[in-house]
Amino acid sequence: MPAWFQSQIQKAFLEKNRHQIKLLNQCWFFYRKKHCSH
């Protein structure tokens, strides 16, 4: 997981920002699906 992504997620969790967390999770899911489905 990229460092910038981890910091974004930590920030979202600290702020208890559910919307942001959901968004980041979706981004991560699609990112992994795109890059790891060889």
UniProtKB/TrEMBL annotation:
Q: Which InterPro entries would you find in this protein's record?
A: CmpA
- The organism's place on the tree of life at top rank: Bacteria
Q: Which Pfam families match?
A: spore_CmpA
According to UniProt, the name of this protein is Cortex morphogenetic protein CmpA
Which gene is the coding source of this polypeptide chain?
Answer: cmpA
